[in-house]
């Protein structure tokens, strides 16, 4: 008898498995794929270069709790990710900052001047409802079309005017020269890779792992008391309210016979190319090698579910599933797919740590009630 069947060996499920195992619970961790680590899984390709199978995963967080928790399972390499955009035949920093504007327009503006430059071009939009509204109200039509419009169309196969404001609200606009993609307190990469971190996290005698396994195939074969579910919430309930749509990505990995392929870790291609970006992994990992490996990302409608599509209609469908999930006994839902929301890695870890504390409190409350009843009888 297992105390918990944990469905999904990505961050959400593995954090839950590790935490619960430490309290003496017996855990069966199941994943459809042939590896742990979920979308953060990395491996050494044929050239001997450490690559991320499912596209680049750069760890960044402002949460000391999350950082210290993961630090139990890995040493870190400090890494500040930088992104360039291929716009008008030149590479310019993304997010848009002072250097972006000066390079793009051949100017020499100061921070105050670039702020005024953007203000003069910004459109007055009230209320701000869509992804297009967010960008147009901050930088105006020209920069919106150069950087955001086509990139968003490629990524989502929808016009930005059809998407929730949250999609582009995630990307800052800066008036200084800070060309880091993230500004979090902790910006690091696992020194030996994500897979090594997961292997250490899950190396506990109370955790048994089954890979290449659909959890539904074993529900009637292996006894357990509770489920931690990190898969698609609509799938758990057999799509009773319809299918929640996702965008997927096709990854094209390529090894190049030279030490460096591009000028920074990731280059975005907002316009005519079929792919959205190219990432070169050696920037992320710090690995030294006379060859280099890159990945091209091609957004797709079909494939593994990566990005929940943020529209009002989809949010309404999810709310129905959310209510079902909240009223399903002995099943706990955590992670991107189970809560139909795009989270950064640190947010997934934080969500599972919070769920673990909630379960611990429930156990404590139940034990207290039992003790109180026994005292009354006595």
From TrEMBL:
Q: Does the keyword Electron transport apply?
A: no
Q: Gene3D superfamilies per the record?
A: NAD(P)-binding Rossmann-like Domain
Query: Where in this chain does the record put each UDP-galactopyranose mutase C-terminal domain?
Result: 146-342
User: One Pfam family of this protein, by short name?
Assistant: NAD_binding_8
The prosthetic group or cofactor this protein requires is: FAD
Keywords recorded for this protein, A-Z: FAD, Flavoprotein, Isomerase
Indicate the enzyme's highest-level EC class. Answer: isomerase
User: Sorted alphabetically, which InterPro entries does this protein's record hold?
Assistant: UDP-GALP_mutase, UDP-GalPyranose_mutase_C
Q: Any idea of its EC number? A: 5.4.99.9
One example of the protein's molecular function in GO is: UDP-galactopyranose mutase activity
Family per record: Belongs to the UDP-galactopyranose/dTDP-fucopyranose mutase family.
Indicate what this protein is called per its UniProt record. UDP-galactopyranose mutase
User: What species does this protein belong to?
Assistant: Sediminibacterium roseum
